[in-house]
Amino acid sequence: MNEEQIVMDIIINAGEAKGYAYEALSKAKEGKFDEIDDLFEKAEEALGRAHDIQTSLLAREANGEKINVSILFVHSQDHLMTCMSEKNLIREIIEMRRERQA
Predict the structure, then answer these.
(1) pTM of this prediction?
(2) What PROSITE patterns does UniProt report for this protein, alphabetically (predicted)?
(3) What is residue 102's predicted lDDT score, i.e. its pLDDT?
């Protein structure tokens, strides 16, 4: 698999994780808290895939392989880190909503 495909896989998986997290937030707004855990599990799986790809690139570079750092690569890293932060914030927002409803 070439570097562009690897980078796109990071973006796709991070985007999928973000989508699940925002879907969970929508469910919380509707009061459907019983549907949230499954969505966060799917988000974690997608995020795990993106993170594994990132880790493999880091390991390759650490082993001396030259990794091309393109704008697309930088974008994928930005996308992944933003997704991780948003997922954590969304989880906190949902917990606050859950506490308010209790």
Answers:
(1) 0.90
(2) PTS_EIIA_TYPE_3 (PS51095)
(3) 76
